[in-house]
Amino acid sequence: MKLFTRVFSFFFFLFLLFGCRVLDYSSGDRSSIFNRFIKPKFPTEYWIYAGDFTQEEVDTIHQGYQNWEPALQKLTATPFHFRFMGYTFTPINDDDTMHVIKKDPLSGNTVGQACLLLTPFGQKPVFGGDLRIASDKSFHTTDQWHFDGWRVYFSNCLEAIVTHEVGHLMGLGHSPNSNDIMYFQESASFCANRKPTPNDEYALEQFYLQYLTNFDFAKNINEDLSNL
After folding, report:
1. What is the model's pLDDT at position 118?
2. Class of domain 41-223
3. Tell me: the pLDDT tens digits for 141-195?
4. Helix, strand, coil: what percent of the chain each, to 5?
5. Cα(first)–Cα(last) distance of the chain, in Å?
6. Which among 17, 125, 173, 226 is least buried, having the fewest CB atoms inside 10 angstroms?
7. Burial of 115 (0-12, 13-18, 19+ CB in 10 A)
8. Torsion angle in degrees (nearest 10) through CA of 203, 171, 64, 109
């Protein structure tokens, strides 16, 4: 019986150590055994699912990522850029080996969805994952006139939606302020601005200071322009 208990305990320890995929955050709680072996995750690179988007939509997705770059550059004191890695047929999955943007049917009025990584036992923060755009909804792109945000009442603002969902992938929650890009639903202001507000940038700064001060942002100092 003692031998069985020891063998069981050994394999249970291995399961905890290697079988649970979790996120690490260098400045966060270091007491967890998981955080000592898993490197930080952050969605610095992204792939677009091949054939899902028009060229105008692809350009708009790029703009949605780029909207966060000035704030990240200021926080990290690096010329940080998100990197577009190319097109893929890899489906959305939960192992975060690739950060994929894909069109899929979404229920109800949902137009975009950040598919966040799972963290067992309620560990925080959650950042990284994939991004879904509703395949059954209509969108307008960056190159179209936004009419001071009023176009949002006729179609969905793809740039604002991507900027919003990327905010979730970076760890941000919803804002109660309707002017912020992280507000929980679309509005004329949301569509007119399409970029992080000072409130959004402050939330990112607080998150960064708490969890990401030791993450190596300097490795993404150049855009992959050959892939754009």
Report:
1. 57
2. alpha beta
3. 999 999 999 999 999 999 999 999 999 888 888 999 989 999 988 888 889 999 9
4. 40, 15, 45
5. 62
6. 226
7. buried
8. -100
CA distance 129 to 95: 8
Strand partners, 40: 24
> What is the phi-psi region of residue 194: left when phi exceeds 0, alpha when psi lies from -120 to 50, beta otherwise?
left
**Token pair of 220 as six digits:** 């993404």
Task: For residue 116, count other CB atoms closer than 10 A to its CB.
Answer: 18
Query: How many angstroms separate the CA atoms of 187 and 94, rounded?
Result: 31
H helix or E strand, kind and range, residue 26: none
Q: How many Cα atoms occupy the beta-carbon half-sphere of 14 within 13 Å?
A: 5
Place of tokens 């209509």: 138
- The residue behind tokens 């790029």 is 62
